Amino acid sequence: MKLRTIIPILAFAFLISCNKDKEILNTLNDYNISMESKGYHFGDALNLPNEVTTNAESISISFGDKETSSLVVDPKFFTLGDNAVTFIIKKKGGETLNQDATINVFAKNPEALLKYEIVKEYPHDPKNFVQGFQLEGNIIYESDGQEGSSRILKYALGSTTPIASTNQAEKIFSEGSTIVGDKVFQLTWLDKKGFIYDKNSLQLLSEFPYPNVMGEGWGLTYDGKNLIASDGTKNIYFLNATDPSKMVRYIAVAGNTEAYDQLNELEFHNGFIYANVWQKPIVLKINPANGEVVGKFDFTDIAKKNTTGNDDVLNGIAFKGENMLITGKNWSKIYEVVIK
Length: 340
Known about the structure:
mainly beta, elongated
C-alpha cells in the first residue's frame, strides 16, 4: 500500500479515536453534573454510564496524593461535602483519559428542625462586633473584631460594662475565642496566629501559630480535651489544647441534602458542636465524630429584628444551663431561648 494511501487511513482512525474519547468524557461529565445536586452517601456505588465502563480497562479516582480503584463512596477517601477528584480512565487500547469532577457526599439522615422559644432578653453593647462568645457562671467572655477595634473582654450577663478588656494591635482582626481552664484562647482572622490570656485579668500571656492546614481563623470552642476551630470552609479542626499548632484530626460538615461551608462561631455543649453559618440566620447542631448535621435552628425572626446590612449578622452562641444564648455583630440584645 502506498504511503499516500496509508496517511489518510491513519488520520481517519485517529479522528475516530479522538471523537470516541470526547464522547466518553462528555458522557462522564454529564453524569457527574447530574449527581452534584443529588449527591451520594457513604457506602453508595458510583454507577458510571455504560459508555464509560465498557470502553475502560480500569477506572480509578484520584484525591490529590491518594487514589482508589473502588467506585464506592468510602469515608477512607471521601469527606462529607464537596470532594474535588480526578477520574482516571485507562482505555483498553492503552490510552489514558483524565477528567476533574466534584463529588458531593451528604449525611444519610435528615437533620431535625429544632424549635425554640425566647424566654429572656439581655442588653448587649451594639458597638461590639462579636466574633467569639461564651458564658461561664454569669460572666460573658467576648472577642470583638474589626481592624483598629479588636479586643477580648468580659462582662456580667445583664450588663454592658466590661469587667476587664484587652485591646489588640491596630492591624489585628480578632475572631473566635474559648475558655480552657484558667485561660482564654482567641483566634485572629488573617494573621495565622492566636492569643492566650489569663482568664481573670485578660492579660496576654502568649501566642501560638495555627497548623498549616488552617487558612484563616474563624470560630473556636473547647470540648474538654481539644480546641475545636473553624476557618470559613466546610472543615472543623480539632487542635491539641497544649500545643494548638498541632492538628489532632478534622471533620467536614454536611446535612442530608446540603453541604455547609463558612462555618463560623462555635460552641460545644452536651457532646455536640453548634455552629452558625456566616451570613445565614441558622445554627447547626453537628456530630463531632463524623461531621453530620443532626439538627438546625432557624433564627430568621430574631435576625430580622437586628440585621440591617451585610455586617450585623447572627454571630454568637453560648449556653446558660440547657438554654441557649444568641447574639450578633453590633446587636443591642442577647436572647436566651429554651430549646423545645
